[in-house]
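[Discussion] Sanity-checking designs against the backbone

I'm trying to build intuition for which residues belong where. Below is a structure token string of 454 positions. I'd appreciate it if someone posts a full sequence so I can compare it with mine line by line.
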């Protein structure tokens, strides 16, 4: 098994010195998964301030489907820097904002005429989707899911599920957010088994309307097509058609939060397309721009146009450099067929990961769609007890050996893959070698400890 050659141990001396300054100057609340400071990055490779080369399986939390510094994206941003950097679309409009909206109206799933709003972050986009849904339906309530993540601002946090570290201590949250279980078959909240459950979790929404919140009070159901922070959980095929039918029956809008799933990650431009999810509004951010902050809400024109002039927007919303980057990203995904590449990468991972699953007790489930793949780690396959500490150790072993990974899951026991889709086969294999060694290291340490305690 090959390993990534490193110049220093990780974190190296320069990273350690910077970490001291960071600890003195930066709030502890701004967590980072890897104690390594970056010098430069290209494609799927990061070079740290000690000259170590690391492979990136995190992509800045799923923002880099087109890779670090994709040449056409950088060129588009450079051209914009030489023209103007900011006017605020609310003061002086510019063509690139319009062009991004035209393009998203064309490619976002859902029939009929569409319109788009640009903002800065995923959280801001989910907040705006709620504003628009409430304005259109004139109803107050939002139904969100267990294990959902929609951002860190107050309404987004109210719709987010995981308590620590996202919500605890920040109460109270905005009202009129109701929560139902997601189609998390590996840990079904109803202790049922798919397919005999006949997606009870989706059908149970009708019961929620009787016992928790009246259907006629619900403006929208907001859902991540595949859970992102919640652990890359992919619902079974019947889930979204069933959910969609119930929403339509009651005049409730369906908001798809494609912030993490969007832009080729799942082997289609949007995960909705692969999962039979027909949304009224789609929320996007992250990989839309290849590394600049910008987010969008796209949806049916009659819904999107409910708020009147001046009711939506923001000072930096739809920044000109970010708009140019987005146009270049969308062109690159199509030209380089990154959707097909996502499927190839996903297959390459699954082939190897399914061997890990049969070899090690620690690997409870391998799941995902396209290149949105994950491993759920458990202490025992029988009990499915979440292996949170072991997951942390796997991730630490990875960065110490040159692979940047991030974890996920309500129980912090999922390793997720968000590598740039431009990663080469050789880099992908190198990265999987490290991940395999990390799992072997932690699994063997665990079995040695349990042998000693017998
Ligand atoms: C599905 C989903 N929605 C919303 C957000 C929030 O996006 P941002 O961090 O840009 O506010 C995230 C971020 O991880 C996300 O994964």
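Best answer:
Here's mine. Compare freely.
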């Amino acid at each position: 098994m090959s390993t990534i050659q490193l110049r220093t141990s990780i974190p190296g001396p320069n990273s350690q010195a910077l970490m001291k300054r960071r600890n003195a100057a930066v709030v502890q609340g701004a967590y980072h998964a890897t104690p390594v400071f970056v010098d430069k990055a290209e494609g799927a490779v990061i070079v740290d301030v000690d000259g170590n080369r690391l492979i990136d399986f995190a992509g800045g939390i799923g923002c880099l489907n087109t890779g670090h510094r994709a040449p056409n994206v950088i060129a588009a941003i450079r051209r914009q820097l030489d023209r103007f950097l900011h006017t605020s679309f609310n003061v002086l409009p510019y063509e690139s904002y319009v062009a991004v909206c035209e393009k998203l109206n064309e490619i976002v799933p859902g029939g009929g005429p569409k319109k788009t709003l640009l903002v800065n972050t995923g959280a801001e986009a989910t907040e705006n989707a709620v504003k628009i849904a409430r304005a259109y339906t004139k109803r107050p309530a939002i139904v969100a899911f267990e294990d959902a993540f929609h951002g860190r601002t107050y309404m987004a946090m109210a719709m987010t599920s995981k308590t620590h570290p996202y919500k605890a201590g920040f109460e109270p949250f905005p009202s009129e957010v109701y929560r139902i279980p997601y189609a998390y078959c590996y840990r079904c909240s109803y202790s049922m088994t798919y397919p005999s459950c006949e997606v009870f979790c989706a059908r149970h929404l009708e019961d929620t309307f009787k016992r928790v919140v009246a259907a006629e009070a619900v403006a929208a159901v907001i859902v991540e097509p595949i859970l992102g922070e919640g652990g890359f959980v992919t619902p079974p095929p019947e889930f979204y058609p069933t959910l969609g039918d119930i929403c339509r029956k009651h005049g409730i809008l369906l908001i798809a939060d494609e912030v993490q799933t969007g832009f080729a990650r799942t082997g289609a431009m949007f995960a909705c397309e692969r999962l039979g999810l027909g949304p009224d509004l789609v929320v996007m951010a992250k990989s839309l721009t290849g590394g600049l902050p910008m987010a969008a809400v796209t949806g049916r024109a009659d819904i999107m146009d409910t708020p009147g002039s001046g009711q939506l927007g923001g000072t930096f919303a739809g920044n000109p450099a970010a708009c140019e980057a987005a146009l270049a990203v969308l062109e690159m995904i199509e030209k380089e067929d990154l959707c097909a590449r996502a499927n190839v990468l996903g297959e390459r991972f699954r082939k190897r990961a399914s061997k890990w699953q049969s070899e090690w007790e620690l690997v409870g489930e391998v799941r995902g769609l396209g290149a949105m793949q994950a491993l759920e780690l458990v202490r025992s396959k029988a009990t499915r007890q979440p292996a949170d500490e072991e997951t942390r150790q796997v991730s630490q072993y990875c960065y110490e050996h040159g692979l940047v990974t991030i974890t996920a899951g309500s129980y912090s026991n999922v390793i997720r893959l968000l590598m740039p889709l431009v990663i080469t086969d050789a880099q992908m294999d190198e990265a999987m070698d490290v991940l395999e060694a990390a799992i072997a290291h932690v699994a063997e340490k665990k079995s040695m400890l349990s042998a000693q305690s017998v």
